[in-house]
Amino acid sequence: MEGGRKPKVSIICLCYNHSEYVEEAIMSILNQTYKNIEIIVVDDCSIDNSRDVISRLLLSFPQINFIANQSNIGNCKSFNKAFAVSTGDYVIDHSADDVLVDQRVSLQVDLFENLDSTYGLVYSSAEYIDEHGKHLAFHFHNDSPSWKRPYIGEVYEKVVANYFIPSPTVIFKREVLLKMGGYDETLAYEDFDVIARITKEYKVAYAGFFSTKIRKLRSSMSSTQYSYKSLQLITTLKVCRKILWMNASIHHSLALQKRILFESRKAFFSFNLQVFLEFIKLLIRLRSSLRR
Questions:
Q1: How far apart are CA 66 and CA 160, in angstroms?
Q2: What span, in angstroms and rounded, lies between the C-alpha atoms of 117 and 96?
Q3: Distance CA 39, CA 86 (A)
Q4: For the segment 180-213, what is each residue's pLDDT rounded down to a tens digit?
Q5: Higher pLDDT residue, 148 or 130?
Q6: Whole-angstrom Cα distance, residue 91 to residue 116?
Q7: Residue 66 backbone phi and psi in degrees, to 5
Q8: Is there a contact between 98 and 128 (Cβ–Cβ < 8 Å)?
């Protein structure tokens, strides 16, 4: 940090129908022990009173940059819209139903500032809470299965094969997100894609504490990922197709094969049969490439 300057961190808070939680989510940013923070809140044309709650907060905290979408454009486009006007050295994507631990930014930035340019993101553990804020579980714990452990360094194959990075805990290096072109706006959700693309080129570091309280709601994307007519499953299929193109070794392909087998079973048992068939076609293409 030149001359003792603390790097600026842009926290982009995405809100859609989170009127019950958005004030707590924003206050958890304002209560950070780290102070060089740029706050950008985006309301994606909520149909509840989220916008009213945010507007009231702006009266007390005018430093918040508020973007009110005139139509619902989805998380990926909303994030990119805010990212385009952000100025931070580091960037956090914060959902308006989650809560940041007070020291999150300080501890993650301290770790990032001691890493070299080969690192693209830092992540942490998380606490899962219910709609009332009651503890449900920790993301990493002693009884976690072997595939759900915190890995560091070159983790591309592990990211492709299994979900282990809780994306709400991630802090990105700005220049890395710029190089990736931000989020892919054709997708229904962003984390699998952007983390796969980043870990293909960069290493990751793990901050050994829980940094975020992730709220599990019946309406949340993670809860509806394997529902009938799931847009998230279609996105996962698109990302797997991109990964097939990105892969550069047999180990990468074997990792993708593991993911496709898992997702195809989920598609079949949730009656997303057309998506299931597309996963099988992708698996055939992948195995054909492995035989060459």
A1: 35
A2: 31
A3: 9
A4: 999 999 999 999 999 999 999 999 999 999 999 9
A5: 130
A6: 17
A7: -110, 125
A8: no
List strand residue ranges (DSSP E) for the chain, in order: 9-15, 37-43, 65-68, 90-95, 99-100, 119-129, 135-138, 171-173, 203-215
Using the structure block, give the residue that is written with the tokens 């989510």. 25
pLDDT > 70 fraction of the chain, expressed in percent and rounded: 95
Region 26-44 average pLDDT:
98
Over residues 102-127, the mean pLDDT reads 97
- At residue 270's C-alpha, the angle toward residues 278 and 253, to 5°, is 40
For the chain, give the number of residues: 292
* 213: Cβ contacts below 8 Å, ≥ 6 apart: 98, 99, 100, 101, 126, 127, 128, 129, 133
User: Do 166 and 150 touch, CB atoms closer than 8 A?
Assistant: no
Q: How confident is the model at residue 291 (pLDDT cuts 50, 70, 90)?
A: confident
Which residue, 108, 125, 97, is CA-closest to 25?
Answer: 97
Residues 230 and 221: their CA atoms lie apart, in Å, by 10
CB within 8 Å of 189: residues ≥ 6 apart: 75, 76, 221, 232, 235
Rg (CA), the chain: 19
Tokens, residue 201: 């080129």
Please tell me whether the overall predicted TM-score, pTM, comes out greater than 0.85 for this model: yes
The string of pLDDT tens digits covering residues 50-81 is 999 999 999 999 999 999 999 999 999 999 99
Of the candidates 4, 199, 6, 3, which has an alpha carbon nearest to the alpha carbon of residue 112?
Answer: 6
User: Alpha-carbon distance 30 to 33, whole Å?
Assistant: 9
Task: Please list the residues that pair with 38 across neighbouring strands.
Answer: 10
Euclidean distance between CA atoms 173 and 124, whole angstroms: 15
| Placement of tokens 């022990």 in the chain | 33
CA distance 243 to 248: 10
Give the model confidence (pLDDT) of 167-187 as tens digits.
999 999 999 999 999 999 999
